[in-house]
Structures are given as structure tokens and as C-alpha cells.
Design brief:
Elements lengths: L2 H18 L18 E7 L1 H4 L3 H10 L8 E2 L1 H4 L6 H11 E8 L7 H16 L3 E2 L2 E2 L4 H6 L2 H10 L5 H15 L4 E2 L8 H17 L14 H12 L18 H12 L5 E5 L2 H8 L1 H13 L8 H11 L5 E5 L5 H5 L1
Parallel strand pairs: 1-2, 1-3, 3-4, 3-5, 5-6, 7-8
Helix pairs in contact: 3-10, 5-6, 6-9, 13-14, 14-15
């Protein structure tokens, strides 16, 4: 293909991308959204309505959560030139765990937004795909019944749609309007900043399940212990709280700690589980564990060389953050201090 054709194809792909669909994505050099790569979140929106405002704020808040590594598909960076736009977009939705359609007044004027929504609802009905809709300055009832400005905008654009879009689009709109989502103008009196925070919190809550520790199911005799520790944790405190579980080997201390850790994950922004501290410290040294803790909580690479430097960095960088840390098999106070 000559250079002129390549440039024209690139422009067509970019135009379709900006007219229709998504601009999102948790950034990672390892994930491109191509092939069999799995995504965590797919954002679908009408670019002219929300790209530079609400969607941009939501996207940037998601990618800067500083917690678990989350990946979101971004169409203008994840689709190689020359690849089929439709198959790449729909494939990204299929591989995502969560889809967030930001349904605005002109959302249904885009055939790509409609096709994305149709595929999202099909994925939800046929698998464990999660759809979290945001009704941005539109009423769910208007989306459901194609009323008001939303309905007028849809009907005025039907001449550009394929027959399949015209038939299945309204069905997908009805289905998504039946889901429990957020109405931007009703949530927090229209405060979009608070809405963004709530959406991010919900996404993290859904994704935290992937980071739960492996615990034997149907444990017997643990409920009382878990309840007692949960009461201590839930008591308001102005400073970091430390809870120790001690006893002879083999009585289930680690299992109990893992169970509590899993229950508490949703309530914390950052988390870390350091296993077998006694053995790891003997084999690799305490700075190795400090590096692991910092990398898991802050999502940055770290090269701690000595214990004192690690203590100083943890003290300064963790300050003000909501963190849950599980330290397993400590047998020396120096390990805890570090």
C-alpha cells in the first residue's frame, strides 16, 4: 500500500474512532488491547458530548488510582493501522471484565456507540461481564422509551444506521436503562467530581475480587475469631491500627488472617500481602521485603539497599494513604519495625 493510501486509511480509522466510541484505558506498556490481551475496563461514550470533560476526568482518575494494576481499552492507541476497527472494538469488549457506557444525549446518534452497547449487553447476558452505566445528563426513562432530546437524536440519525442497528439498538438501550446505574444530575446534586470518585470506587470493588488470597472454603470454627477482629478493625481510629495474631504453629493463624484480609479489601485503596517473612528475610534480607511492600502499595519499582532507607521511604510515602498490609510469619520485632 502506498503512503497516501496508508495516511487516508489512518484518517478514516481516527475519524470513526472519535465519532463513536471509547477513550479509556489503564496504561501499561505490556497491554495493547490487541489479540488475546485481557482488559479490565472498557469505556464507551460519545466523544463530542463528554470526551474532553467528564470522560477525561474519569479516565485520568482511573489511571492514577495508584492501587492495583488495571487495564482499560483505548481505541485510538490500541487498534493497529490496517486492522479491522469493528472486530478490534468488539473483541476488546468481550475480553473486558467491566464495561462502562457513558450514555449522553447524543450517544445513540453514533452507530459505533450503539454497536458497543449491543455487544456489552450480549456479553452481560451470556457471561460474567459487568455493565456499569452512567446516564450523563439524560434520564434512564428517556433512554428506555426513546423520549425527549435523546429519542429525537436517535431518530434523526437512523438514516445512517444499518438495519441491524435500528432493530437491536433500542433493545440494548432498554436493557441498559433497566440496570442500576448512576444519574449524573441526581448523584451528589450533580457534583461530577464525587460521581467520578464513586465510579472508581465501584470499579475497584469489582476488580478487588481478583486479588483475594486463596483460602479453604467452608472453614469451621473461624466465624467468632473473624467477627472479633472485624469489630476491632471497624472501630474508628485516628491513626494506623496494628492487630497481631499469635499462637503455636498449625492452628490456622495465616488462614484466619487471609480470610479477614479478603473481607477488608474493598474498604482499602492500597493493599499488600507479604508471605513467609521469617524465611524470606533469612534468604533474601529485609530490604527485599521492603521493596516488595513498596512496589505492591505504590505500584512503582523500587531498589532499597538498606533497612533504614526502606523505613524512611515507607514512612514518607505511605503517609495519608488507606492501606491494608498482611505480614505473615513474623518471628522477630526487627522485621515488624522494618
Amino acid at each position: 500500500m502506498d503512503k497516501g493510501k496508508i495516511q487516508r486509511k489512518r484518517k478514516r480509522a481516527q475519524k470513526e474512532s472519535t465519532e463513536g466510541a471509547s477513550t479509556s484505558s489503564f496504561i501499561s506498556p505490556k497491554l495493547t488491547g490487541q489479540g488475546d490481551d485481557a482488559c479490565d475496563v472498557f469505556l464507551s461514550f460519545k466523544g463530542s458530548d463528554t470526551r474532553k470533560e467528564f470522560t477525561d476526568h474519569l479516565y485520568n482518575r482511573l489511571v492514577n488510582t495508584g492501587t492495583v494494576s488495571i487495564f482499560v481499552f483505548k481505541d485510538d492507541k490500541s487498534i493497529p493501522i490496517g486492522e479491522d476497527f469493528s472486530s478490534q472494538i468488539l473483541g476488546a469488549i468481550s475480553r473486558s471484565k467491566i464495561s462502562i457506557p457513558i450514555i449522553s444525549e447524543n450517544y445513540a446518534t453514533s452507530k459505533w456507540c450503539l454497536r458497543e452497547l449491543i455487544h456489552m449487553m450480549d456479553c452481560k447476558n451470556g457471561a460474567s461481564h459487568i455493565v456499569l452505566p452512567i446516564f450523563y445528563k439524560v434520564k434512564p426513562s428517556d433512554v428506555r422509551h426513546l423520549k425527549g432530546n435523546f429519542g429525537d437524536a436517535f431518530r434523526s440519525s437512523q438514516k445512517y444506521f444499518d438495519e441491524k442497528d435500528i432493530q437491536e439498538g433500542p433493545r440494548a438501550l432498554r436493557e441498559v436503562s433497566d440496570l442500576h446505574g448512576w444519574e449524573s444530575e441526581k448523584f451528589a446534586n450533580g457534583n461530577e467530581g464525587e460521581l467520578v470518585e464513586e465510579v472508581v470506587k465501584k470499579v475497584l470493588s469489582k476488580l478487588q475480587q481478583d486479588f483475594q488470597l486463596d483460602v479453604t472454603k467452608h472453614l469451621v470454627g473461624f466465624e467468632d475469631h473473624v467477627s472479633k477482629i472485624r469489630n476491632w478493625v471497624d472501630t474508628p481510629a485516628s491513626a494506623a491500627r496494628m492487630i497481631g495474631i499469635y499462637g503455636m504453629g498449625g492452628i490456622g493463624k495465616t488462614t484466619l488472617a487471609k480470610s479477614i484480609y479478603n473481607q477488608l479489601l474493598d474498604e482499602f485503596v492500597h493493599h499488600s500481602f507479604l508471605a513467609n517473612i521469617r524465611e524470606t528475610a533469612q534468604c533474601n534480607g529485609i530490604p527485599y521485603l521492603q521493596n516488595q511492600l513498596i512496589e505492591e502499595v505504590l505500584q512503582i519499582e523500587c531498589q532499597i539497599r538498606n533497612v533504614d532507607r526502606g523505613i524512611s521511604l515507607i514512612r514518607s510515602k505511605f503517609k495519608g494513604k488507606k492501606v491494608i498490609i498482611l505480614l505473615d510469619d513474623i518471628d522477630n520485632k526487627k522485621q515488624l519495625d522494618a
